[in-house]
Design goal:
The protein is an alpha+beta fold. Helices cover 19% and strands 38% of the residues. The chain has a 5-stranded antiparallel beta sheet. A hairpin with a 6-residue loop joins strand 2 (37-43) and strand 3.
């Protein structure tokens, strides 16, 4: 399952980040690394952006980034 598939209010733990290059760097710079818990706060009507809570911070992710984050 990916982060994009979680509904608002659900949470999960990051299993892996399935991308490379600048996108992976951007995701990891936000503090999203394997083992971190993420809670989905809100999803825009068209799915872009996805607002999440990571380590006490609210962040916005593009749906393309959320598809690359594998959850367990």
């Amino acid at each position: 399952m990916t982060l994009k598939e979680l509904k608002p209010g659900q949470q999960g733990t990051v299993a892996a980040i399935n991308t490379t290059g600048p996108m992976k760097r951007r995701i990891m710079d936000m503090g999203i690394t394997p083992g971190v818990e993420i809670k989905v706060v809100k999803v825009a009507p068209l799915g872009n952006p996805i607002e999440v809570n990571v380590r006490g911070y609210e962040l916005s992710l593009r749906k393309e980034e959320a598809q690359q984050i594998e959850m367990r």
